[in-house]
């Protein structure tokens, strides 16, 4: 296999996918059979600067270069050859957010990520004007909020894009987005596959009423569907990926996509009545629709698959970060006892303990809100754990409470989709860190949405693999072959999945937990109101007595 893989690598019969996630930048190289040949990654974290979540552009390129270098090292170690070229390339990243550049290509304000919820006035006004839900995190909500706040930079904007669009632009010179990522910037007209012209005109009017002359259509990236060409790697772009100069230019790129779209590809969830849940720093569900929804719901936003088909998205800003924090605390405790447990072992132990917890969490409640959560109408978050005086405080129930909490906001949105709109699912696929411990996260998600949930190794490399597959699709598919057919017949043929039916006791327990969770939301709101965010007191910065 190594000989065949080495031959594929040296003859450029490969595709490289790079995805910039919320905590990790990952690069995956796949061969002609779409199997991963090598991987590389780099960790990074967002920063809260002036009450806004951001990443620096310097961190973007440092992480990308480290990931590509690590992948090249993996190629060398596994296959004994040097990585000097690839057959196709694709870039994916966190959707939404706000990256505004002037005519010289200079960033006008620090990157505002999807995690920010300062756009409440904007989102509310645009939703009312457009007649569709415009969530806080969408790019157009960020832009209009900047207009309303009379930010000086707005009049100097030459173009707007997402994180994936920015990286793609720097690699190719092309200002273009895949339709799935574009649909998280501004609403797409299903009939034309372009930005909705009526809404574009109305936005320009709203901006003019606020004293700003804008031509939004001229600021937004172009749109391309899966399978269409989207430029080639330039010499400058190759140097950005590999400053050592080993990577050749001229590689064709597929349209850049958002992490939601690559998650759909990585789980073969691009056909109607299929869906997937991705659970990491955020947690979101993507459900491919058979038709239009009956009405507008603020809990649901409408985006598209990378092929342009309509998708209902339930997006929760807060996912597993609070779980990570608790696992870190338990790891510190284990080390204080002299036990050197690695993080994987700690997570496995804690998650497995949750299986023995009380089905309804025994009166415990947790809110995993590190940041604001629009679905529950919170502009900021305060992580919170509480219990009634008669709640037993045991490890299993404590962990089940935090696992249920990580899915609770998703459940609120899925109730709207499944119960209010009557949307049916044939399959829900789960992927992400929450589902790594076998039979735990999968079981609790099945209970949360009362739907069979499948897991498998098809999404083991996540969105970076998904965008690599989209790159391969753009360069190696048969003429007129659809993305759905390509995935079914070429990529996922023969793949096995493990499907878990919802347990009635778990379903009843989750329902009881949700009743208390919703009733307790005013407590979380009070925490936001009364507990300020500031520099935490630590042993290093605590004032010492005189």
Descriptive notes:
Residues 15-240 form the Carbohydrate kinase FGGY N-terminal domain. This is Sugar (Pentulose or hexulose) kinase. Residues 276-474 form the Carbohydrate kinase FGGY C-terminal domain. Keywords: Carbohydrate metabolism, Kinase, Transferase, Xylose metabolism. The chain contains 18 helices and 20 strands. It has 546 residues and is an alpha/beta fold. The chain has a domain at 1-77 and 85-259: ATPase, nucleotide binding domain (Nucleotidyltransferase, domain 5, 2-Layer Sandwich), CATH 3.30.420. It has a seven-stranded mixed beta sheet with strand order 14-15-13-12-18-19-20, with helices on both faces. The chain has a five-stranded mixed beta sheet with strand order 3-2-1-6-11. Strand 1 (15-20) and strand 2 (24-30) form a beta hairpin.
Q: What fraction strand?
A: 15-25%
Compute the number of strand runs.
Answer: 20
Going across the major beta sheet, what is the strand order? 14-15-13-12-18-19-20
Low-confidence stretches: 539-546
SS element count, helices: 18
CATH superfamily label of the domain at 1-77 and 85-259? ATPase, nucleotide binding domain
Shape: globular
Structural class: alpha/beta
CATH architecture of the domain at 1-77 and 85-259: 2-Layer Sandwich
Indicate the CATH class of the domain at 1-77 and 85-259. Answer: Alpha Beta
């Amino acid at each position: 296999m190594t000989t065949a893989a080495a031959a594929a690598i040296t003859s450029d019969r490969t595709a490289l996918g790079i995805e910039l996630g919320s905590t990790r930048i990952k690069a995956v190289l796949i061969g002609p059979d779409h199997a991963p040949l090598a991987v590389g990654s780099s960790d990074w974290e967002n920063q809260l600067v002036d009450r806004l979540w951001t990443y620096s552009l310097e961190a973007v390129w440092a992480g990308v270069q480290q990931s590509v270098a690590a992948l090249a090292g993996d190629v060398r170690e596994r296959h004994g050859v040097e990585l000097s070229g690839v057959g196709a390339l694709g870039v994916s990243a966190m959707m939404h957010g706000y990256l505004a550049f002037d005519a010289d290509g200079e960033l006008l304000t620090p990157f505002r990520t999807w995690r920010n919820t300062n756009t409440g006035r904007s989102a509310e006004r645009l939703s009312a004007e457009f007649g569709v839900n415009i969530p806080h995190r969408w790019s157009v909500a960020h832009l209009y909020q900047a207009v309303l706040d009379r930010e000086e930079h707005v009049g100097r904007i030459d173009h707007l894009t997402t994180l994936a669009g920015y990286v793609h632009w720097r690699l190719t010179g092309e200002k273009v987005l895949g339709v799935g990522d574009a649909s998280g910037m501004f609403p797409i007209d299903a009939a034309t596959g372009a930005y909705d012209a009526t809404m574009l005109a109305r936005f320009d009017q709203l901006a003019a009423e606020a004293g700003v002359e804008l031509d939004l259509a001229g600021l937004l990236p172009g749109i391309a569907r899966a399978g269409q060409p989207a430029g080639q790697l330039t010499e400058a772009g190759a140097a950005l990926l590999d400053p050592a100069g080993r990577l050749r230019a001229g590689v064709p790129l597929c349209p850049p996509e958002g992490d939601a779209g690559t998650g759909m590809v990585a789980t073969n969830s691009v056909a109607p009545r299929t869906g997937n849940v991705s659970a990491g720093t955020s947690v979101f569900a993507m459900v491919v629709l058979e038709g239009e929804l009956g009405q507008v719901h603020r809990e649901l936003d409408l985006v598209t698959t990378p092929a342009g088909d309509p998708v209902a998205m339930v997006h929760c800003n807060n996912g597993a970060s609070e779980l990570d924090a608790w696992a870190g605390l338990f790891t510190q405790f284990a080390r204080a006892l002299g036990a050197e447990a690695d993080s994987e072992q700690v997570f496995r132990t804690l998650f497995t303990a949750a299986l023995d917890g009380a089905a309804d969490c025994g009166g415990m409640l947790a809110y995993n809100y590190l940041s604001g959560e629009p679905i529950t109408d919170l502009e900021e978050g305060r992580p919170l754990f509480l219990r009634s005086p008669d709640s037993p405080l045991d490890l299993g129930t404590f962990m089940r409470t935090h696992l249920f909490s990580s899915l609770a906001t998703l459940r609120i949105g899925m109730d709207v989709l499944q119960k209010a709109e009557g949307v049916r699912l044939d399959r829900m696929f789960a992927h992400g860190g929450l589902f790594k411990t076998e039979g735990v996260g999968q079981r609790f998600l099945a209970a949360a949405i009362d739907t069979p949930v499948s897991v498998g190794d098809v999404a083991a490399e996540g969105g970076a693999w998904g965008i690599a597959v989209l790159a391969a699709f753009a360069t190696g598919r048969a003429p007129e072959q659809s993305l759905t057919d390509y995935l079914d017949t070429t990529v996922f043929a023969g793949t096995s999945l493990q499907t878990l039916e919802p347990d009635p006791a778990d379903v009843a327990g989750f329902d009881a937990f949700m009743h208390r969770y919703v009733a307790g939301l005013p407590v979380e709101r009070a925490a936001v109101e009364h507990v300020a965010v500031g520099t935490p007191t630590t042993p290093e910065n605590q004032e010492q007595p005189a």
